[in-house]
Amino acid sequence: MRVEEGFQQASYSTEHPYTADPVLPGLLKRILPEKVFEADLLRLGDRLVNEIRPLAPLVHPATLIQYDEFGRRVDHLHTSEGWRKIEEFAIQEGYNAPAYERKHGEHSRTFQFVRTMLMTGDCHVVSIATVHIMQEDAELIELYGTDAMKRELVPRFLSRDPSTAYLSGQWMTERPGGSDVSRTETHATPAERLPTDLVHSAGSLARCLTIARAYAGVRAVEGGRTLLKDVPLHVANLAGVALLYRGLVHVVFGAVRLLGRSECGVASKAEEARLRLLTPAIKGYAALRATEGMEEAMTALGGLGYMEETGIGRLIRDAMVEKIWEGTVTVCALDLVRAATKDPQGVQHYVEWAKCVIASVPSSLKQQLWKPLDMLSAALAKLPSAFTESAANPLLPRLALDFFASLSCALYLLEHAAWSYGTAEPTQEEDVEAFRRWVSEGNLAKTEGEIEGVRRAGSWRETLNSRLVYGSGDVSSKL
Ligand SMILES: Cc1cc2nc3c(=O)[nH]c(=O)nc-3n(C[C@H](O)[C@H](O)[C@H](O)COP(=O)(O)OP(=O)(O)OC[C@H]3O[C@@H](n4cnc5c(N)ncnc54)[C@H](O)[C@@H]3O)c2cc1C
């Protein structure tokens, strides 16, 4: 039978990344004073669906030609047509600019991050050069650059004109190490040209979830009688991914709001301290957990998920870099513990904020949620000692990061659920359920148990870890 014959799987349609998102519209409704960004997000989403998504088949890996036929060093970087068009789109859209133009005051960061989130899934690796790195360089220059740098470079980093915009890069990581920069060999010298190309990307859990959701609407099982979207077990798997996405989005935007306040000089000391703790924790935790959800989304498409054309494989590969660059998850954990032990008052501020979030829950909702709220309060009480013990026990920092980040997700989900319930939002039931599941069925309790296990085992666990990895003793003695 020819491939054109027999059963043909219907393809799934592409959803608007903002209106179809299960979390962002409700979150923005709560955290913004009015619907200031809505028109722009709708327009941006339309461009993504109609102009950018169709470019995917034209995006190919870049190639670097280092030498010409005479053995001369040329270093030509060839990028694909699709990639160049997406790069142009990203610059035109001012991927990065809103955060620095600050037209929306303390909400400018939220605006930039929500746009970035919408674009990430369809923009392949472009966002790394246009957002991630340029943003850091713009920030560096804003904080420490000379007047000439601020005048000449920052406007080009933020330009929406592809003919004048600069892309930038960082070359800090050297062979001796990226985590440990104490043996860095490079000396900075003025250069005539700025680097113009990098190829990197972060993946997008949102995009994978969208694809899995759309596919469930067209794939029939059980003799072709039932669509996957109507199979409870399949939907339960997707609900797990959706819950993870929800937790990550709420905690990320919790920190983004603090960043926006900090940059506008309106953050309190307590908010600055919370931002300091959340930054490495969320970076590490989101990197770690997002790929888990993306893998689940891939399997939700069965064999099709494995096909390169769906884009999920690429998104997972790109997301993996987040676990490594700018601090591996372990390095983020060490930074978190360092920040927490250096500023115990900051941890106290966090605990007080958390107690306020719990206290803000309407009493009728408290009755409904008494069990997860008790669990949350008990976990919160253990937080300061989890940090102090992590400074002394080399095996605890990674668990402390998981624990703190998971706790923070729970608190931000609760903040949203309390608001949603209080204002009788149409989504209140799922908002409340998301908090309940995160605490009662998520990995907060599991991480607490693991911390307890490491605590009890003491240094004997380190010995056993080494034996598990390297075996015990000399091989010849076992023969
Ligand atoms: C795709 C990609 C793009 C990148 N782009 C850039 C870029 O544009 N600019 C740039 O400057 N760099 C870039 N990097 C480099 C990146 O930032 C580093 O790879 C990263 O910081 C890790 O450093 P390393 O490679 O030296 O690993 P190492 O520091 O050697 O880490 C190896 C392992 O040791 C662990 N480890 C390290 N220190 C400790 C410790 N004290 N305790 C316990 N465990 C520890 C780490 O967790 C890791 O598992 C990029 C990396 C990748 C993969």
Automatic annotation (TrEMBL):
Residues 200-335 form the Acyl-CoA dehydrogenase/oxidase C-terminal domain. Keywords: FAD, Flavoprotein. The keyword Flavoprotein applies. The keyword Lyase does not apply. It comes from the Eukaryota. GO terms for molecular function: acyl-CoA dehydrogenase activity. Pfam families: Acyl-CoA_dh_1. InterPro entries: Acyl-CoA_dehydrogenase-like, AcylCo_DH-like_C, AcylCo_DH/oxidase_C, AcylCoA_DH/oxidase_NM_dom_sf. Coiled coil: none annotated. Belongs to the acyl-CoA dehydrogenase family. This is Acyl-CoA dehydrogenase/oxidase C-terminal domain-containing protein. It comes from Pycnoporus cinnabarinus (Cinnabar-red polypore).
